[in-house]
Amino acid sequence: MRRKRLHGFPQAFYTSGHSMPTPFTTCHYMNRFINGETLVLTKYTNCPADMSLKEFDRKYRLPKKDSIKLKGTVRAMEKRDVPTVFKLFRD
Question: pTM of the prediction?
Answer without folding.
Answer: 0.43
